[in-house]
Design goal:
Blueprint lengths: L3 H17 L10 H7 L1 H5 L4 H10 L4 H6 L5 H11 L8 H12 L12 H26 L5 H23 L11 H28 L14 H9 L1 H21 L3 H34 L4 H22 L3 H24 L10 H10 L3 H21 L18
Helix pairs in contact: 4-6, 8-9, 8-11, 10-14, 10-15, 11-13, 12-13, 13-14, 13-17, 14-15, 14-17, 15-17
Length: 405
């Protein structure tokens, strides 16, 4: 039996235990805060995979998802997609009417074949190689023409080749999802590295021997390298499409970021090796027909091709800054080699060109672009193994860097 004094003594003890016991903090619905934080992403997402890509771009990992009582990012994205209502776009009726007008054939007109657009894109990928071959053939047939006429043919060929490359990279798998100012800077580095691949070996050789004697010096282009690189746009597009399709399938089948990365890394390595094999075959074939400059020149052109392929792959999947940085590093190394040779001509600075002269003496002028492009390509490959294996790299609507704060 409990006395009043005993009850009075027991009450403070119970109160003390209640105050000593820690209270549970945190909301009962932890996902609600995440819904408000990423309201725009969840409302405009096409599916749960796009939300998972956006969350991963913000730094949400499987360990972070566990704090929201989910096993991984994908299950967290599925709940967000189910709970956040879809946003109604303003131009939905107009877009629907436009889509219906495009997809519904008019009376009396047969529907367009499904493979026609793919055939057109394939033809555009082959166009740069055809234009380059036609330019080489035109220059070869104009040996007896006057120098101004040959120069006009060459300039016209370069302009047409630039337009063909522009068309090829703006359609199909090599097309950027979003055009940004950084892509213009990358275009400058592409022009530099491609121009160095064609004329850089001749220029470096002339500088090392005290030249060039302008304007009498006639540049000697690497014709086989130019033709092979122009023809390599078609296999680059094929490998990029192969990687994109299988990467999207891996994103749909994966249940965690670790599993997605494990699925995607072999795809990236395989796509790179496939393109490298196709490019080496083109370089050897062009060298056999048009004349080869040696094994080092083939290695330099192959390294440049892989560098351009990886840079475009990164840019297509939402990482234009990394692509521009890789191209800029290769261009900077090539420009540095030329600058050191010129600076060494100043009084008191002859040792500056010793590394370049030693390298070219051992392996030829093509060793400079081979080293520069190989180092940059390896850097982009290492970065791609981390960046292109995430969910944000395979989001169909937004680039990976668009979701980042």
């Amino acid at each position: 039996m409990t006395t009043p004094d005993g009850a009075a003594a027991q009450a403070p003890a119970q109160h003390k235990d209640a105050t000593a016991r820690p209270t549970r903090r945190g909301p009962a619905d932890p996902v609600r805060a995440l819904m408000h934080r990423h309201q725009n992403l969840c409302a405009h997402a096409v599916d749960a995979l796009e939300i998972a890509a956006g969350l991963e771009a913000y730094g949400v990992t499987d360990r972070t998802a566990a704090r929201f009582r989910h096993r991984d990012v994908f299950s967290l994205a599925e709940e967000l997609y189910a709970r956040v209502p879809r946003a109604e776009p303003d131009a939905a009726p107009a877009a629907t009417a436009t889509a219906e007008s495009v997809s519904t054939p008019s009376p009396g007109r047969p529907p367009a074949p499904a493979g026609r657009s793919r055939s057109v894109r394939g033809a555009l990928q082959l166009l740069p190689g055809a234009v380059c071959l036609a330019t080489v053939a035109a220059l070869a047939s104009s040996d007896e023409a006057t120098p101004p006429a040959r120069k006009a043919v060459g300039i016209a060929g370069v302009v047409l080749l630039a337009l063909a490359v522009r068309l090829a990279v703006r359609t199909g798998p090599l097309r950027l999802r979003h055009h940004e100012p950084r892509s213009r800077a990358a275009a400058l580095w592409i022009c530099w590295t491609a121009g160095y691949a064609v004329y850089g070996d001749w220029l470096l050789g002339q500088l090392l021997t005290g030249g060039p004697d302008l304007p009498a010096a006639a540049p000697r282009p690497a014709v086989a390298t130019a033709v092979a690189l122009a023809c390599a746009l078609a296999p680059a597009a094929g490998c990029a499409r192969w990687f994109a399709v299988r990467g999207r399938r891996g994103l749909a089948a994966s249940r965690g970021l670790g599993e997605l990365a494990a699925r995607t890394r072999p795809l990236l390595l395989t796509a790179t090796l496939l393109f490298l094999g196709a490019l080496v075959a083109l370089l050897l074939g062009a060298g056999a027909v048009l004349g080869s400059d040696g094994a080092v020149a083939v290695a330099a052109a192959a390294a440049l091709g892989v560098l351009l392929f990886l840079a475009r792959l990164l840019a297509v999947h939402g990482f234009p800054e990394a692509a521009a940085a890789g191209l800029a590093s290769a261009a900077a190394l090539e420009a540095l080699a030329l600058s050191l040779v010129l600076i060494a001509r100043l009084p008191g600075l002859p040792p500056l060109d010793m590394p370049v002269e030693t390298l070219t003496t051992a392996a030829g002028p093509a060793a400079v672009p081979a080293v520069a492009c190989t180092a940059a390509a390896l850097g982009l490959l290492v970065h791609g193994l981390r960046a292109l294996t995430g969910a944000c790299a395979h989001s169909p609507s937004e680039p990976a860097e668009a979701h980042r704060p």
